[in-house]
Design goal:
This protein is α+β, with helices and mostly antiparallel strands. It has one helix at about 1-35, and strands spanning about 40-50, 55-60, 65-80, 85-95, 100-105. It folds into 2 domains: about 1-35; about 40-105, Copper binding periplasmic protein CusF (OB fold (Dihydrolipoamide Acetyltransferase, E2P), Beta Barrel), CATH 2.40.50. About 30% of the residues lie in helices and about 40% in strands. A 5-stranded mixed barrel has the order 1-2-3-5-4. The longest helix has about 35 residues, at about 1-35. The N and C termini lie far apart (about 105 Å).
Length: about 120
């Protein structure tokens, strides 16, 4: 009888620990999903100010006339070298107190291809 009781206690403890581990994994998974589902937004405009940690653009239409400020992190992807006056497209995530730039792409002036000369 003692062996049956010990076995029952062991199985009960095992099932309890398994249930707690499963619940903890579900909670961690839900928290991870909430963090990874940040919505990416896009803005386009001319650079008004830029330094290592901040980018300010003057928006192009349809939101002309509004400035937007972004936090630039070391992880921000930079395609080109944004300078004051250059046109950029910014992909960003909204956080409670600021916008985080994830990608900054400089739009290069479109230069028409030179006509090929046939001889």
């Amino acid at each position: 009888m003692s062996t049956v009781r010990t076995s029952a206690l062991f199985v009960g403890a095992f099932l309890s620990l398994s249930a707690m581990a499963f619940a903890a994994a579900e909670t961690a998974s839900a928290a991870s999903s909430a963090n990874s589902s940040l919505e990416i937004h896009t803005a386009r405009g001319s650079v008004k100010f830029v330094d290592a940690s901040t980018l300010v653009i003057h928006q192009a239409s349809p939101y002309s006339g509004k400035n937007m400020t972004f936090v630039m992190r070391p992880s921000t992807e930079r395609e080109g070298d944004p300078k004051v006056g250059s046109m950029v497209t910014v992909q960003y995530e909204n956080e409670p107190d600021h916008r985080i730039a994830t990608v900054v792409e400089v739009e290069h002036a479109k230069v028409p291809p030179s006509p090929s000369v046939s001889h």
